[in-house]
């Protein structure tokens, strides 16, 4: 998979860095010495080529400018892709299960089926138990819940 690159933003930032460098009466080589980066790395940044955030920050510091000031540019603030309704619902499901954990619901061991039924009753939505199961397993992996076996079923309880 090719790496994503927002060319418009990189070019805009590069031109802005170049303008600050010229205003400070510095050459590219001066910034290279000040940052420890190569001449080509600085040139690439100014031309809008790919750069890491660490390089960007260090160049800003060398110019005596806070990175947030350098970023004070009008951009259209919009994500590259929208969240699908399915992904959004799964995200909400994680939050809803986290709320159950915090409410003490898991003081008694609960099966995936128990949790699914509870969520369906509370939110009046149809939850797939496989989605609930994945989230419960993740909470067990991160030690938020304890998973124990009862036959072939997992039971989840609070730590």
Describe this structure as you would to a colleague.
By secondary structure, the protein is mainly alpha-helical. Helices cover 58% and strands 9% of the residues. A hairpin with a 2-residue loop joins strand 2 (145-150) and strand 3 (153-158). The two termini are 40 Å apart.
Q: Which features would summarize this protein structure in a list?
A:
159 residues; 9% strand; elongated; 3-stranded antiparallel sheet; mainly alpha
Distance between the termini: 40 Å
Task: State the secondary-structure class.
Answer: mainly alpha
* Integer-rounded radius of gyration: 25 Å
Count the beta strands: 3
Percent of residues in helices: 55-70%
Number of helix segments? 8
Low-confidence stretches: none
Mean pLDDT over all positions? 90
Largest sheet: 3 strands, antiparallel
Our estimate of the beta-strand percent is 5-15%
User: Strand arrangement, largest sheet?
Assistant: 1-3-2
The coarse silhouette is elongated
Helix-strand pattern: HHHHHHEHHEE
InterPro entries: Cro/C1-type_HTH (IPR001387), Lambda_DNA-bd_dom_sf (IPR010982)
Protein name: HTH cro/C1-type domain-containing protein
Domain HTH cro/C1-type: 17-70
GO molecular function, one term: DNA binding
